[in-house]
Amino acid sequence: MTSSPTRGIKTVLHPVSDLAKAKAVYAALLGVPPQTDESYYVGFEAAGQHIGLVPGGGPQGMASPVAYWHVPDIEAKLAEVTTAGATVKEPAHDVGGGRLVATFTDPDGNVLGLLQDR
Asked: Which residues pair with 90 in a beta bridge?
């Protein structure tokens, strides 16, 4: 059915109101210290997944966790999901290190993410 398969959900970002408190809770939950620890983002690598904490929901205004599906071709997958009825919320853009991300909403308004590493 699709020409651009997914590689599964490997990244989940969580908006947090208090980064220091959230960092302590997630470190305890995951049993590892953060791999990335900045004032604007804290990221953990655990069990093959990346868990990110975004203070205040970040510039994208996240109001709830967003699961990011890893894909080999983000533009192709965005085209496929919009043709199927999704609405682009945040177009594909580089967030550093050659990583592209985008978000879209399903017909019920749920926010889903796509991620491509180049």
From this structure: 103
